[in-house]
Amino acid sequence: MKAVIPAAGLGTRFLPSTKAQPKEMLPVYDKPTIQYVIEEAVASGIDDILIVTGKGKRQIEDHFDRSFELEHNLREKGKIDTLKDVKAISDLADIYYVRQKKQKGLGDAIYQARKHIGDEPFAVLLGDTITKGDIPCTKSLINIYNKYNASAIAVEAVPSEKVERYGIISGNEIEKNVYKIDRLVEKPLVDEAPSNLAIMGRYVLDSDIFDLLKDTEPGFGGEIQLTDALSNLSQIYGHIFNGSSYDIGNRFEWLKTSIEFALNDDESHDELLKYLTEICKCNH
Length: 284
Ligand code: G1P
What we know:
The chain has helices spanning about 35-45, 60-65, 70-75, 80-90, 105-110, 115, 135-150, 210-215, 225-230, 250-265, 265-280, and strands at about 1-5, 25-30, 30, 50-55, 95-100, 120-125, 130, 150-155, 165-175, 180-185, 195-205, 235-240, 245.
């Protein structure tokens, strides 16, 4: 299976940091966001990844390319472990790029992948979400796709004040944590939302979606919404993934995720905890 990672957005929620750098390259603790996402795809058995880029996204290509100058420098300095890590990034997967020439929304970004994907089912991983679990989130969606022979998307219950930020679904729970979806609405008002189950940025989709996207009119925010096209699929399932997901689409959640990841790293845990305890005391 191939994967598509849309990375064409302007990153306006992270300005000024994203003025001259793609938001996908902002680090979460010690790695650029997009590297976590690609590692999830690879851990799910995917080795062919198409990144949909736009203007000002060259750094993404550079990050996943070889850097002979840097490698030479690290070798000279005897930094062999770092050298291995750096080389491993460019060996992660076969990565392809296509440009979305005009910002017309997530649905349009995915539509740019139609020629690369062809008639096969494919995964979509949004860079605003990082997931962690014993079975990678995308892998668990592939399992559901294979079981029901239909598209599957990851969903998660969110508190009512966050409903307006997401695509929201409703459906019947047909087995534990699997819903047969009957409605999908992009960013509804909380009073009009069909439930509090939010689409959380992972999809395994039938290639039929491309024909639907072609005919999808602009929706929420005047953009072509993937959610609107999904609601015209004949069958689609929602899965509450058994693991954690981190929505890093706004700066506070991004910061919290960096702190949590740093606390989970043995190398930084003790020092960070000491620091956090101290500043909390000072601010009390
Ligand atoms: C996109 C999708 C939305 C989904 C969200 C998850 O919205 O359109 O349905 O819930 O990602 O992060 P965006 O965050 O790009 O506005």
